[in-house]
Every structure is written in structure tokens, then in C-alpha cells.
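Technical note accompanying the year-one report. For the benefit of new consortium partners, we illustrate the data format agreed upon in the data management plan: each record pairs a sequence with a C-alpha cell string. No post-processing was applied to the example shown here.
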Amino acid sequence: MNRRTFDILVPFAYVIALLIAVFVGNEEWVGIIAAIGAIMVAAYYAALRSNIKKTEP
């Protein structure tokens, strides 16, 4: 996978996980997934993405 794919996939996976928790209906899990997911997305864009090598043809 290239860099642009991850740029789309990371927030998309977060939204999917959050929607699943909402549809299950467990309020505690929604809060946990929202907090952990937000931290993971922020970590990707702040730290991890800067270390991914740019692969352009």
C-alpha cells in the first residue's frame, strides 16, 4: 500500500469502528473507541506519517 492509501484508510477505519460501536449500542464502548481511535489517528498523522517514505512513481 502506498502513502495515500493509508491517508484514506486510517480515518475510514476509525469511523467504521465508531459506527459499529454506536450500532451495538454500548455507550461505554463508544467512549472507549472514540478516545483510543482519536489518539491513534492523531499519532498516525503526527508521528508515524512523517516517517513513512514517499513512494511516487
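Partners are asked to follow this layout when depositing records. The chain is about 80% helix and 0% strand.
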